[in-house]
Design goal:
The chain has 370 residues and is an alpha+beta fold. The chain has ten helices and 20 strands. A hairpin with a 2-residue loop joins strand 13 and strand 14.
Length: 370
């Protein structure tokens, strides 16, 4: 077995999940990647835990969603929810062979899946009540999206995922503390002039204990405080459909205008429920190895010099009260080659053109994290 796979499995079981003897961990793999699943099983056994494994396939899931009705989806959710409640931890290895596999599923079917299955099982149970970590796994599809050979992408992947996250975590502390002292945020960039409050909402460090790869600190805007316009300069994929040139305009926290390469589909998703037109997360990304988008949000939201702004559900641990079946991270990169930009906290410039400018935050600039 590739020693990098063994190292990653060890980090996931022992660091990310901190799995203990006798605990149950659900290992869920979409589009089979046997080496990492086997390594996770071995590591779980090594710490005295009990691994439970589910293998899923996107093509099979597509058929399930296409043919389902309300009653069938409720039954699907009932069984998945019971299993999720019965474990202590969860790790998902999602090695999608085709990120657009769900692209031709009608929106009403995807909405049914989001509302009836995903929201109660994952947003309702897994995210707030379990120790969990989610990751992709390198394959030809991901290498193609990154415009790399498979070998080069694997080298990139393991350098990103096996980063020294304990070191990164220490460097995050000043940003977390600053965000929790901040009231007003203003963001400017080409096509963007956005303002909102984050007063009173916790800031959460993400240093390898939820997503792999990692590298962000997130909070949420006060729900009704968002004003202005934001233009995203990276592609964003939602349930198999890719959108470019997304532009959102806000009034009293609500998205009142939304345009993109497919404005009709964008607005249909934002009309899933009332909460989908409000923002549930604001996060600043700084993984030093991730520089360009590849239409995989677990990578794209951590891009060095980026931030993301998320229509939909807020996390319970950084809660602004917004609830939705949608949680759609959209990314803007502010490094000079992407047009630049500025982030201000209470009228103080904290990051310019993707680099932190306050001395206490300079530890999060790329050269200090590699």
């Amino acid at each position: 077995m590739d020693p990098r796979v063994k190292e990653l499995a060890s980090r996931l079981i022992r660091y990310s999940l901190n799995l203990q003897q006798g605990e149950k961990v659900l290992i869920e793999n979409i589009d089979l990647q046997a080496p990492i699943v086997k390594a996770l099983i071995r590591e779980a056994y090594a710490v005295g835990a009990i691994p439970l494994v589910t293998l899923k396939d996107q093509e099979v899931m597509r058929e399930m969603i296409l043919g389902s009705n309300q009653e069938q989806m409720e039954l699907f959710a009932k069984h998945e929810l019971a299993r999720m409640k019965d474990v202590d931890a969860y790790v998902a290895v999602r090695a999608y062979e085709n990120i657009n596999e769900y692209a031709d599923i009608p929106e009403e079917k995807m909405s049914l899946y989001s509302r009836v299955y995903y929201k109660p099982v994952h947003l309702g149970e897994r995210v707030p009540h379990k120790r969990w970590v989610v990751l992709r796994y390198p394959n030809k599809s991901m290498a193609q999206a990154a415009n790399m050979s498979l070998e080069s992408f694997e080298d990139f992947y393991f350098s990103v995922c096996n980063l020294d996250y304990a070191k990164m975590s220490r460097a995050m502390d000043p940003l977390k503390e600053l965000m929790e002292r901040t009231d007003r945020v203003r963001i400017t960039a080409p096509g963007t002039d956005l303002s909102f409050s984050i007063k009173g909402i916790p800031a959460i460090k993400c240093a390898g204990d939820r997503n792999i790869p990692d590298g962000e600190v997130y909070t949420a805007p006060v729900r009704d405080s968002v004003e202005g316009t934001i233009a995203f300069n990276t592609p964003t994929n939602h349930e198999g459909t890719t959108f470019t040139d997304v532009k959102l305009t806000f009034s009293k926290g609500r998205i009142v205008e939304a345009t993109a390469s497919n404005s009709k589909a964008l607005n249909e998703i934002l009309d899933t429920d009332e909460g989908a037109r409000y923002i549930g997360e604001f996060a600043i990304g700084f993984n030093p190895h991730i520089l360009h988008p590849m239409q995989d949000i677990l990578f794209d939201e951590k891009i060095a010099g980026s931030f993301h702004f998320t229509p939909g559900n807020a996390y319970d641990i950084a809660d602004n009260g917004n609830r939705s079946a949608i949680h759609w991270d959209m990314v803007q990169i502010q490094r000079p080659e992407y047009g630049g930009g500025e982030i201000w906290f209470d009228d103080v410039l904290i990051r310019k053109d993707g680099r932190f400018v306050l001395p206490e935050l300079e530890g999060l600039n790329p050269e200090n994290l590699v």
